[in-house]
Amino acid sequence: MTASPYDGLAAHYHLIYEDWAAAMCRQAAALNGLIESELGPGTRTILDVSCGIGTQALGLAALGHTVAASDVSAPAVQRLRAEASARSLDVAASVADMRDAWDHHARRFDVVLSADNSLPHLLCDSDIAVALRQMHACTRDGGLCIVSLRDYGGEARSGTQVKPYGVREDAAGRHLLFQTWDWHGEHYDFALYIVHDRERTCATDVYRGTYYAVSIANVARLMKDAEFEDVRRLDDVLFQPVVIGRRR
Fold it and tell me: What is the DSSP pairing of strand 139-148 with strand 109-114?
């Protein structure tokens, strides 16, 4: 996994969402509902192993959960800390690769989370298996693992595709966002373009990386191999499918 796209993107990542604050609250409410349906009511200890700038971690902390968060991108973690401070939230944020989650955190949580299609940044089954085993080690007995990821089943895996996000506006001006996907087998190289329109000037930032278009069925199989039980796909929780499993 490379940190480079998200190192540069950390300052602008909120622009991916039409309303980041609203998305943060909406996703936290959805995840909280899932956690309560699986583990019962009450606040929980939660580890987000791919936290980015805190879209899920901040919202869950605002609901009263005790949240630890880590990410491979140091600038993203730095922004999460700033956002948490601005909201008077306590999130224990640190820099770590999800493949080192247990080695880094060395304790167990009620819930271990990886959201926003982070797992497919790992480019082969063996790396995903390592990450899931580390996530299993961080999950308490009877605890829950939650992974959200894109369903690549309907994607035409060839050529170059353009994925528009839309136009965003803030105090700095207007911003046009879109991605290109260049496919090669089960992987694709993405480029996220952010065009900043500041009335008289225009500048474009581009952030590049690679995804593994891993199937949800394959992720579920790898979760079972990592010794999670009752592994299931859920399609009505977040804007992406969710795969959950329990530690025995």
Answer: parallel
Give the structural domain span for 95: 4-151+215-247
Are both 94 and 172 inside the same structural domain? no
| R_g of the chain computed on alpha carbons | 18
pTM over 0.85: yes
Cα distances from 159 to residues 113, 153, 182, 184, 211, in angstroms, run: 33, 16, 6, 8, 15
Which ranges of the chain would DSSP assign to H, the alpha helix? 4-9, 20-39, 55-62, 74-86, 101-105, 125-137, 216-225
183: buried, middle or exposed (CB in 10 Å: 19+, 13-18, 0-12)?
Answer: middle
The tokens describing 115, both together, are 């959201």
184, 229: one domain: no
| pLDDT tens-digit readout, 50-105 | 999 999 999 999 999 999 999 999 999 999 999 999 999 999 999 999 999 999 99
